[in-house]
Automatic annotation (TrEMBL):
Protein name: EFMT1 methyltransferase
Single GO molecular function: nucleic acid binding
Source organism: Upupa epops
Cell compartment(s), UniProt: Cytoplasm
Keyword annotations: Cytoplasm, Methyltransferase, Transferase
Amino acid sequence: DDDDIPQLSSHTLAALQEFYLEQQQREGMKTSQEFNQYSIGSIEEDWQLSQFWYSDETASRLANEAVTAAGKGGRIACVSAPSVYQKLKEHSSEDFSVCILEYDRRFSVYGEEFIFYDYNHPLNLPASLQPHSFDIVVADPPYLSEECLQKTAETIKYLTKGKILLCTGAVMEEQAAKHLGVKICKFIPKHSRNLANEFRCYVNYASGLD
């Protein structure tokens, strides 16, 4: 009897259709020639991994700052900061090199520039990453805890020749100074989705973010 067949409400059906349409559009973008694998959002946020992508404007500002700080022929490491890495790759014609250290293996699509990274093992890094071999390290620890910052700081200090650009919550200002000797900048980074926690940038050099 047709009366026994469960029916979706019109509201639920419309929401489901909208979801499938968005999914089809995303898949269509990924197969089109115009799709840019380095664009922010090409790999979707995974909130379970505490991933929140920067706005396009913020990613551009931080990428430009990293390029300027690294200098001609400079090397840039992005530690848990994939939005900055992606924006840097949009400027790949410029004279610098960059790698991404990230826990999320979806970013392995970026080939040899991807390095698997777990902040719980801060110095478990491939031999190809020589100590103090990067002109600047851009880092965004995934969690607002002193333990996460302290362990990520070990990685940062191992990699950098000196310059550090840290992005984390305003509540971490004291710990950032303690573990990395960085000071808060005037520039306020924004995310593509609004976060409940106030977010800030910190540096240990004269930057263009003030």
